[in-house]
Specification:
Helices cover 65% and strands 3% of the residues. It has 26 helices and five strands. A five-stranded mixed sheet has the order 2-1-3-5-4. Helix 6 crosses helix 19 and helix 9 crosses helix 17. It is globular and about 85 Å long. The N and C termini lie far apart (84 Å).
């Protein structure tokens, strides 16, 4: 019996070692465990409006789209479910899974520095983080794009060769076609690649024709600068259109975020910064036609905003984004969970500082080590530099935009590399390495225990569909932001009237509005406050204006009013 028990123990230990030697396999199990009940996470779809509309147009053959994300939604709508909300739930799950795989593969590139246990632990933390949990992502586009870009960076981390470079460019350009800011790391990687290419060509020219290398490099630099100046002075029509589109997008983002910043500084002014930002933007920046003209019109206010916004993003929103945890449970459990997590981070930080001090990383010729590392292919220094290039993606957002968690996604590989290294240091400091085969499953259950177990109906979309059968075909839906209800509730077969378009008393009285959805966002706009007396009367007696209020079906944070088709 003792021999049988001994053999069983050896087999069990061998099986545990086999599993621990395959971190990606363990991480996939942990992610699947965390995502049990994922179909209950049906919420937060506001920003998916345009991708769903574009995907529908792709399916109808009305357009082709270069975005992988739009085509993924289109494939899901065609082959998995015709319900847009269900399709987006699946896409959220897939984006989270893809980002987890990309992070695990990236951390695996640092295995000479880290044990696999540290990598797996960091991935457990990531799976349950607020940046990755599908429920908290109002749009999975940013997470999906980040995953594609990180897979591209992973190609270079694994192999600084032509196949690795091709993989980086294919995935990098695919990411940039979804989110334009990802052109920045593609450009930054292209600069040293171009430099190496010019250097090698100049060496070949020198050996064959005897032309000094510096003359060849100087000529190449002159051609590059001259060509760039010529293109900027007289850009092709396609490039000029693209630059104009990016400039207007930047002005739009700056206008909304500055208005939000201004409203927090002037709470006495009532307006919605997302839909009524133009008044503040025009008043303080002289009706700008572009972002550059806005800065020129009032450089002092622009610098004041950029400085204070950057400080707020780095010292307030960044820690909140990185250290926030997510569990679909009660507030009390969340607080206990958060305290435990922060206690671990404190201990891991102490262990990390102790390890760095032991190895004299800070004090023993750091500059010389960095220079030597840059000269060696696939060195730790060059790998860290690639992750810093990815961080550059969020540089403009941190300066110009109000902090939103998705803007900090490019920081994730560096941050979780630090988490992995800290966990490794903690295990070593307290001599817990021999227990990692037991500690890791406990950590996995602690972070990745099943989530989304409680059903969560999407009251907003359900309410829209509930009243949809009582109104005329292709109804006009009025709300603070009605586009999501049009795209997801009616599959695009409706007309959106947003508060920025103007929701007027005359339109309601004359039957030009079929569904009115009222929430706190709409009540906080100038559109509402300027007609407060009318809207007060409307909410008290909707029948007076030919409307009914939805009362026999839950509608979440909205009060839903509809005009029956027989009116």
């Amino acid at each position: 019996m003792n021999e049988i028990g001994s053999n069983t123990g050896k087999r069990l230990s061998a099986a545990v070692r086999w599993i621990l030697e395959r971190p990606l396999f363990v991480v996939l199990i942990a992610h699947s465990l965390f995502s049990i009940g994922i179909w209950n996470a049906r919420d937060g779809y506001g920003e998916e409006t345009s991708p769903v509309i574009y995907a529908t147009m792709v399916l109808q053959g009305q357009r082709s789209d270069p975005s992988l994300y739009v085509n993924l939604i289109a494939l899901t709508l065609r082959y998995l479910t015709a319900d847009p909300v269900g399709a987006l739930t699946f896409v959220k799950y897939l984006s989270s899974l893809l980002a987890t795989i990309a992070l695990c593969l990236t951390l695996n590139c640092f295995t000479p520095l880290l044990r696999r246990s540290g990598i797996m632990f960091a991935c457990f933390v990531w799976i349950a983080s607020s940046l990755n949990a599908p429920f908290l992502q109002s749009s999975s586009l940013s997470l999906f794009t980040f995953a594609i870009m990180l897979l591209g960076v992973n190609c270079l981390l694994r192999s600084e060769s032509l196949p690795g470079l091709v993989g980086f460019y294919v995935l990098g350009v695919a990411a940039a076609l979804m989110r334009p800011e990802y052109y920045l790391p593609v450009v930054l990687v292209s600069l040293p690649v171009a430099g190496v290419l010019i250097y090698r060509v100049s060496s070949a020219v020198e050996s064959r024709y005897g032309l000094a290398r510096y003359w060849s490099c100087g000529l190449a630099l002159l051609l590059f600068v001259g060509g760039g100046v010529a293109i900027m002075r007289n850009p092709p029509a396609a490039l000029e259109k693209k630059l104009a589109s990016i400039d207007q997008y930047a002005l739009f983002g700056f206008g909304q975020c500055y208005a939000d910043f201004y409203r927090r500084s002037h709470p006495e002014e009532i307006f919605d910064p997302m839909t009524e930002y133009e008044t503040i933007l025009n008043r303080n920046f002289g009706e700008p036609e572009s972002l550059v003209s806005a800065i020129k019109n009032n450089p002092g206010e622009a610098l004041n905003y950029f400085f204070r916004n950057t400080a707020g993003n780095l010292f307030h929103y960044f820690p909140r984004a990185m250290f926030a945890r997510f569990r679909d449970q009660s507030e009390e459990v969340d607080k206990r969970f958060s305290r435990l997590v922060h206690s671990f981070y404190f201990l891991a930080g102490v262990a990390l500082a102790f390890r760095l001090f032991q190895r004299r990383v800070i004090f023993s010729g750091l500059i010389q080590k960095l220079k030597a590392g840059l000269a060696r292919p696939r060195s730790l220094t060059r790998k860290l530099l690639l992750l810093l290039v990815l961080v550059s993606t969020s540089s403009v957002a941190i300066i110009m935009l109000v902090g939103t968690p998705r803007y900090f996604l490019p920081w994730v590989p560096l941050f979780y590399l630090g988490v992995a290294y800290s966990a490794d240091a903690l295990f070593s400091l307290f001599r817990m390495v021999r227990f990692e085969a037991w500690l890791l499953p406990v950590a996995g259950l602690f972070y990745c225990r099943p989530n989304y177990l409680k059903p969560r109906p999407n009251y907003e979309m359900d309410a829209v569909q509930q009243v949809g059968v009582h109104v005329r075909d292709r109804p006009r839906i009025a709300a603070w932001w009605a586009d999501p209800n049009v795209a997801l509730g009616f599959g695009g077969n409706a007309v959106a009237v947003n508060s920025s378009d103007g929701i007027n008393q005359a339109d309601i009285e004359n039957g030009h509005i079929d569904i009115l959805m009222v929430d706190g966002n709409l009540r906080g706009t100038r559109t509402w406050t300027s007609q407060k007396e009318f809207f007060g009367s409307f909410e008290e007696q909707p029948e007076k204006y030919g409307f009914k209020k939805l009362v026999d079906h839950p509608s979440g944070r909205f009060d839903v009013y509809y005009r029956p088709d027989d009116q």
